[in-house]
Design goal:
Blueprint: H1 4-18, E1 22-28, H2 41-48, E2 52-53, E3 57-59, E4 62-68, E5 80-85, E6 90-96, E7 105-113, E8 117-125, E9 131-139, E10 154-156, H3 173-181, H4 187-191, H5 202-212, H6 225-244, E11 286-290, E12 293-297
Antiparallel strand pairs: 1-7, 2-4, 3-4, 4-5, 5-9, 6-8, 7-8, 9-10, 11-12
């Protein structure tokens, strides 16, 4: 599943092409791509026709495109946005106007930009776990901007329960550390809880825990404040490095808006490196089952302790 770096790469790629553009045609050809939309295919299309995109924003693994102008249907009760979640294999691609249909194409938005002219934004999704929706924007609880790419203190209602991510300027380290220490769950499970902090999935949890020398099954409530502060620092470092390298691609399911793969997979220290030597000490990396996923760690560098240092 695309995590924060992959979704941010997509957001940043979309931003210059869609901000200021007007939607001139909508073709929602597969209703499975609209599972989070409060309405049918026709309402989705009519709610977007003729409207302008004012920003490209992201929090955690969600991105949204705020809209201006009136829809063809009844006026909305609040400002609205197109909300996208890429699921397991969703892609948002930029194509020239009239470009051939993409494999697994679900939705196409034709847009007209004052500088870049006519373009198409294509939502393609092989496994159909991703989705698009038109959703209202609601005020943020803390009064800060909703996420990266927007100054507005608002998020889509679908995103309101999602915590801020570690790269967000409004992320509160002290509050998050306190929340972590209140959890009697494995620290990796806490990292994947998007209501505690967002954007971190299986790959970057394993990488950050390896960097911080913390066993993934260590209970969060026995980790010291110092250890958790170190972990947050390592999370930021690995997210920023992955972002600089275009994200992690193991196959063609994750690509940027131009269809190109990221190359952070070459920088992984733990994830997906079962039985390979730990880059730090040479001990073979272990893989264990973890809630329908896998955890990868070094049994020597990341020993499970009753209290971390």
């Amino acid at each position: 599943m695309p995590e924060l770096p992959e979704v941010e790469v997509v957001r940043a790629g979309l931003e210059p092409a869609v901000v200021g553009a007007r939607i001139v045609a909508v073709d929602a050809r597969d209703s499975r791509a609209l599972t989070r939309h409060r309405g049918d295919v026709t309402s989705f299309e009519r709610m977007l026709m003729g409207r302008a995109i004012t920003a490209a924003a992201r929090r955690g693994k969600f991105l949204w495109l705020p809209l201006s102008g009136a829809a063809e249907v009844e006026p909305a009760e609040a400002p609205e946005a197109i909300v996208a979640h890429l699921g397991m294999s969703g892609q948002l691609l930029l194509r020239s106007s009239g470009a051939p249909e993409e494999r697994h194409e679900r939705v196409r938005l034709d847009i007209r930009h004052p500088v870049h002219g006519e373009l198409a934004v294509v939502f393609s999704d092989q496994r159909t776990f991703g989705s698009l929706a038109v959703d209202i924007l609601v005020p943020t609880v803390d009064g800060a901007a909703g996420g990266w790419g927007t100054d507005a203190a608002a998020t889509p209602s679908h995103v309101a329960h999602i915590a801020r991510d570690p790269l967000d300027s409004a992320f509160d380290d002290r509050a998050v550390i306190a929340a972590m220490r209140g959890k009697r769950s494995a620290i990796k499970r806490v990292l994947l809880d998007q209501t505690v902090l967002s954007g971190v999935g299986n790959i970057y949890a394993d990488e950050a825990l390896w960097a911080a020398r913390i066993h993934p099954e260590t209970s969060a409530d026995v980790l010291s404040t110092r250890a958790l502060a170190r972990l947050l620092s390592e999370i930021r470092a690995v997210l920023l490095k992955a972002l600089a390298e275009g994200g992690t691609s193991f196959d063609a399911q994750y690509v940027n808006v131009n269809g190109q793969a990221g190359y952070f997979a070459h920088s992984l220290n733990a994830y997906g490196r079962t039985s390979q030597p730990c880059p730090r000490c040479g001990t073979p990396i272990m893989r264990v089952s973890f809630t329908n996923r896998s955890s990868h760690f070094c049994p020597r560098c990341q020993r499970r302790r009753s209290r971390a240092v």
